[in-house]
């Protein structure tokens, strides 16, 4: 490989060179099982001629998930969004539910589908998770429940929030879509609050292509959830107001069992990639990497940076565009903030000043590629491009302005 000429600008795609990667390098886990394992597990589905309705693979997956997450019940569902709606129903939470404004829109959408409304809480800019001071203020003003979110393979201040929920007498449940495999003070995420919901979407740590699971230690809640899902298997049927189709198919569970077999090795691999990013980007002005928050072990599923425009030399959005030109598919989760996007921007009047920390993070946070598609050498190349883009910031900005 030739040494790049530091005075030349021709090595960046945004300035006319070929992209660094010939195919898009994604953010997201995107693991595929070994083909032979896939064939044998799918052959068993064909032999049984049984596609869905709490089949043997879903039952086995639920057993293994409950053991791994150290909970009494793991209830597999179609996806995490439906799982979150089912929990709101099963817990019979009231109409106004506190959620962090800095989260994926599905967190808040899960409330709308069951006739509830989010009450947006600001987040702590250091941790990206629920700001407990603002949370307490919202509880003082009156709210019916807390739907806390564990982001980026980290966790919110779980114990403080549990104490607040107890003190104000409101149910607490968690969107842990991004937190499979992470632990808080030695306990796996999954056993906190009254229920937690994981996503097994293809981009998540543990995957069933589409899917998710709800965990709870409460037997009555679990029975209600199984009936709301419309597939309670051998369990007791209990009355519920409304049912949904929230079932997981045998095909999804088959992939899930294979994913669960390898999830520890994938987490270790993610940690190595994370370490590589941290050392390669160390000391770069205006770029800060967020370590997983409030956990003693993480799935390291996301590489989260914050870009400070004055120090970095360009905005987060400009860097994002320059990276995309290289086929480095960095993501701006969550932009725009859910409180500034339809339907919430029209349903709820949030003033310009109401959620300042969330608004700031929405303008500065960037995810870099991590997961099964990313090889260690790719991290080196991504970081080299970021350094180069920064070095040539004036030319890059000029080019972007003219596009
Ligand atoms: C992925 C994700 C969801 C939605 O998960 P689905 O399984 O796609 O419904 C919800 N909340 C957060 C924080 C997520 O990252």
How would you sum up this structure, described in words?
The chain has 403 residues and is of the alpha/beta class. The protein has helices spanning 35-48, 56-69, 80-90, 105-112, 132-141, 158-168, 219-229, 250-281, 309-312, 316-325, 344-347, 356-364, 376-391, 393-402; strands at 73-77, 96-100, 117-121, 145-149, 172-175, 183-184, 187-188, 195-199, 212-216, 287-290, 303-307, 365-368. The strands form three sheets. Strands 1-9-8-5-4-2-3 form a seven-stranded mixed sheet, with helices on both faces. The chain has a three-stranded antiparallel sheet with strand order 10-11-12. Strands 6-7 form a two-stranded antiparallel ribbon. Helix 1 (35-48) packs antiparallel against helix 8 (250-281), helix 2 packs parallel to helix 8 (250-281) and helix 5 packs parallel to helix 6 (158-168). The longest helix is centred in the middle third of the chain and has 32 residues, at 250-281. The protein binds pyridoxal-5'-phosphate. The site of pyridoxal-5'-phosphate (PLP) has 14 residues, from helix 3 and helix 4.
